[in-house]
């Protein structure tokens, strides 16, 4: 078997941001369903949360390539 353990570690660490994004947009949909007039403010907050959550996945893939080389 060939490969790097860093890539396996990244695969496992990608679960966290995946769950985080799911929770963020579940809360967004729930909030819009309860108060449709707050959609604009909630959308801005949801996208900001998505970006902050996804940055950890991007840092993780960068570190996986750094440590595998």
TrEMBL record:
It is a multi-pass membrane protein. GO terms for cellular component: plasma membrane; proton-transporting ATP synthase complex; proton-transporting two-sector ATPase complex, proton-transporting domain. InterPro entries: ATP_synth_F0_csu, ATP_synth_F0_csu_DDCD_BS, ATP_synth_F0_csu_sf, ATPase_proteolipid_c-like_dom, F/V-ATP_Csub_sf. The chain crosses the membrane at residues 6-33, 45-67. PROSITE patterns: ATPASE_C. Residues 7-66 form the V-ATPase proteolipid subunit C-like domain. It comes from the Bacteria. Keywords: ATP synthesis, Cell membrane, CF(0), Hydrogen ion transport, Ion transport, Lipid-binding, Membrane, Transmembrane, Transmembrane helix, Transport. It is found in: Cell membrane; Membrane. The record marks 54 as: Reversibly protonated during proton transport. GO terms for molecular function: lipid binding; proton-transporting ATP synthase activity, rotational mechanism. Key component of the F(0) channel; it plays a direct role in translocation across the membrane. A homomeric c-ring of between 10-14 subunits forms the central stalk rotor element with the F(1) delta and epsilon subunits. F(1)F(0) ATP synthase produces ATP from ADP in the presence of a proton or sodium gradient. F-type ATPases consist of two structural domains, F(1) containing the extramembraneous catalytic core and F(0) containing the membrane proton channel, linked together by a central stalk and a peripheral stalk. During catalysis, ATP synthesis in the catalytic domain of F(1) is coupled via a rotary mechanism of the central stalk subunits to proton translocation. Belongs to the ATPase C chain family. This is ATP synthase subunit c. It comes from Quadrisphaera granulorum.
């Amino acid at each position: 078997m060939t490969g790097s353990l860093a890539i396996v570690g990244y695969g496992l660490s990608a679960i966290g941001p995946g769950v985080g994004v799911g929770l963020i947009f579940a809360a967004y949909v729930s909030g819009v369903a309860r108060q449709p007039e707050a959609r604009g403010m909630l959308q801005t907050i949801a996208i900001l949360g998505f970006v902050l959550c996804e940055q950890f996945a991007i840092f993780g893939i960068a570190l996986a390539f750094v440590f595998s080389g």
